[in-house]
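Below sits my pick:
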Amino acid sequence: MQSMHAMQYEITLPADYDMGIIHDRVATRGALLDTFPGLGLKAYCVRERGVDGSPVNQYAPFYLWVSVTGMNSFLWGSGFRGIISDFGRPAVQHWTGLAFHPGPALTATPRAATQRRTRIPYGEDPASVIDQALERVTGLATHPGVHSTALAVDPRHWELTHFTLWEQTPTEEFGDRYQVLHLSTPQLLDLRVGRHW
């Protein structure tokens, strides 16, 4: 049985940075991962200062991997070398997958994403906190406009991340908001639905 791994790196750019450069980058290079082995999905996420409440300009792609081999091939291969050569080497955040759910808008092209990160407080039972989070993610998966939603955990820092792709920007607050410039989904259907244990 395959396990899911979530990954993200955030490249925060100057306040006066021309975000058109990132839009052009994604337009010309985004399709390169459309057939990448082991990749469930890659959302080419950006935040633009002053848009949807963002305080920063940021390029922050989010990945769901269906295999560690695929993730390693990307990180140690030419894919990530392009990021390093253009922006320097960012820290790569990594979470163990807990759940994935397709939503009612799975066949639509998502234009937005939300991400909420929460720490599991010291002294609280991680399993109980995760069970509550799993209930929330299962409920959110039925929300109109949801393409898909995932929950993952970083047990080093005891941090949960809840990432959701949307057909359009949601009006409710579900966390930090991103524009999605492109979505690569070579093995989307191989992401196992439901709990990942």
About this structure: The longest strand covers residues 93-102. The chain has a mean pLDDT of 95. The radius of gyration is 16 Å.
